[in-house]
User: What shape does this take?
Amino acid sequence: MQISGAQMVIEALIAEGVDTVFGYPGGAIMNVYDEIYKQDDFKHILTRHEQAAVHAAEGYSKASGRVGVAMITSGPGFTNAVTGLADAYMDSTPLVVISGQVPMSLIGTDAFQEIDAVGISRSCTKHNYLVTDAKDLPRVLKEAFHIAATGRPGPVHVDIPKDVTAQMAEFDYSIELELETYKPHVKGNPRQIKKAMEAIAKSKRPVFYLGGGIINANAAYEVRDLVHKTGIPAVETFMARGTLSHDDDLLISMLGMHGSYAANMAMSETDLVIGLGARFDDRVTGKISEFAKNAGIIHVDIDPASISKLIKADYPIVGDVKNVVNEMLELCDQVKSEKYKPWRETVRNFDELHPLAYHEDTDRLKPQWVIERVGELLGDKANISTDVGQHQMWTAQFYPFSRPRQFMSSGGLGTMGFGFPAAIGVKAASPEKTSINFTGDGSILMNCQELMTAVEQKLPVINIILNNNFLGMVRQWQTLFYDKRHSETDLSVQPDFVKLSEAFGGIGYRVKTKDEFDAALKDAIEKDVVAFIEVIVERMENVMPMVPSGGSLFNMMLLEKKEK
Amino acid sequence: MEASERRVISVIVVNEASVLSRITDLFSGRGYNITSLTVAPIPDSKYSRLTIVTSGSVRVIEQITKQLHKLIPILRVYEHADLVEKEMALVKFPVSENITDINTLCEAYNGKIVNVGENVIIAMVADEPKRVENFLKIITRYNPKEIVRSGAVALER
Assistant: This one.
C-alpha cells in the first residue's frame, strides 16, 4: 500500500518504539505535523524554542538510554537546533533529528526559510541525509536510528523537503539494512585484552580512568564488578559521574581541571592508566606532555579515532566497553587486590591532605552547601541536570551520585541553556524521579522560555538557581588570570526570578538561609509544578581545585586551608 | 614539531550526493592539508575512488585515516607507501617557442604535443608527480603561458 512521506515518518517512529517526540512546527514540516495530529501512538512535546527541543531530546536519551527524537522546520527552525546537534555530537548522545526543508523545486533558489541544512549539520552530526524521494524514506529513517544508536552513538539529522512528505510511495519497514560501509567494531581483540590484563597484573600503581562511554554502553555495573574484583582505585571523568557510587571506597573522585587533588595526583603518580570509554580531552589531561608521564596506557574505546589521538596508547583495544570489560572479568584472577594495598593507602593520603571541601565563612550561603544539601535530602531519588559554569562543576564535585544516568550535563560543548530543557526531557523519560536542574543566574536565562513547556506538559522540573549575580566561571578566570578586570560578567541587573516563574504559571522562591532553602525545596516537591528556587549565594566563591588552562594536572590551585 | 611528510591516501566511497563535501569538510574542520584531490567513479560499481595527497606528521596521518574511516559512506582507506602514482599536466606555450625542443622534453616525460593552434601549442605529460614537477621547472625557459595539473591518482601495488 502506498502512503505519503509524512505518514512514513509517523510509521517509522512507531516501528522504532518511540514514545516521545520533542519539536516545534513550521511551514516546511507541516505535512508531518498534520499526521502527528491524527495519531495517538506517541506523545509530542511542544517546546518553545527549537534548541530546547533538541536539548530535551538529549535529556530524554541520556536518562533513558534510548534514541531521542526531535522535529523542527526548515530555515530558522533548523539553525536554532544546530546548537543541540553539536551538543549531542560532542557528548555522543544518540538522537534522530528530523527537519523540514523547502520543496525540491525551490532548493537552491534562496526560497523563504531555505537554508542548506545538511551542509550546516555535516560537521556536527554523526551522519545526515537529504531525502529526495519518498521511496527512500523507510531505508533512510531505519538507517538513521541504527547509526544513531550503534558504534559511538551520536546525532543523525534527516532533512525532508516538503514535497517529499506529500509524495506517495510504498512503505516497508521490515527491510534489511545493507550498510556495507558502516560496521562498528564491538568485540575487542582477545589477544590485546589478554596483554592488557597481564600489564594490569604486573603494575604497582594502576588507576581506572572511567569515561562517559561506560554510561553510553550501559556498562557501569560490569565496571563496578571489575573495579571491586581488582581492588584498583578509579577516577571518573565529568561524563562518567555515577558509574561508581559516591560511597564506593575505590572511587577517588572526578579528575581534570576541577578534579579533586587525590584524583589528579593519582593520575600523575600512576604507572598504568586503564582508560575505559574516555577520550583524554584537554579538560581532563591538562598539559598533555606531563599527563600520566610515567604510566603505560590501556585505552578501550569503540571509536578507533579516539585511540592515540592525544595520548599514545600502549594497549589499544577497539570495542564496546561492555564486551571488553566482560572479557577482562574472565581474566582478572591474575590480578591480586592485596598487592595494591600500599597504593590505595597513598591515594587515601592524597585525599586526606586536600579533600574536596569548602569553607562556610561568609554570611551568604555557599553554593556547594546547596548541592550537598539536595544530595542529603534527595540522593538517589533525584535525576540531576545542570547548565554550564561554576554550578556545573560544583554539582559534579559535591552531588552524591549513586547510579549511571543520574547526571545529565553538557560536557563537551559546554552549552549554557542546556540544563532546563534537558531536565524536561529527563522528567518525561523518568517521571518517578524528581528532576532537579542546578543552574546559574547566567545560564537559566538562555532557555527560560521552557517554563511554558514544563507548565503545559506538567513536567515539574525544579530549577535551583545558584545566584551570585555573576557569569561566575568567566568571572573566576578574570579574577585569577585577568587581574580582576570583570569585563561584562557582572549580572547585577536581573529579572525577578520568582515573578518570572509565576508569570508562566510555575512557582518561585527566593531563599537566603539554610532553613528557607529546605522549606522551599520541600514545598516545591509537594506542589508538583515547575519551580525556580533562587538561592542567593556568595558572589566571589571560586571552584577549587583548579588546574590553570594548559598547566600540568599535578599543579593545582587549591582551597586555602583555614584553622578551625 | 614532529616531521611532516607527504602522503598519498586512496579512498573508496559510495558514489552518493555530498560525499565529497563530507571528506573536504573533515579536512578543513580538523585543520588537515590537501595538496591535491582527484575523484572519479569506479566503472561498473556504486563506488568512487579518491586520491588525496596530503602532508602531516605520522600521528596526523593516522588521525586522518581514522577520521576518514569514521565517515559513514567510506568503504576503504588505503594509506601505505607502496602506491603507483601518476599525474598529468597540460602546458600552453607560444607557438613561437622551439617546438622540437618542447616535444623532445615531453617525450622524456611520457607526453607529447596534443594541440597546435594559430598562436599556442598545448603539451601534455603524464608521469610521477615528482617528475611532473621537474618537467614544469625545466620548461619555464620556454615561457609557458598556462599550466594545469590534474593532481595525483594512485593504485596500491
Summary: Chain B has a mean pLDDT of 94. Chain B has two domains: 5-81, 84-156. Residues 99 and 156 of chain B are 36 Å apart (CA to CA).
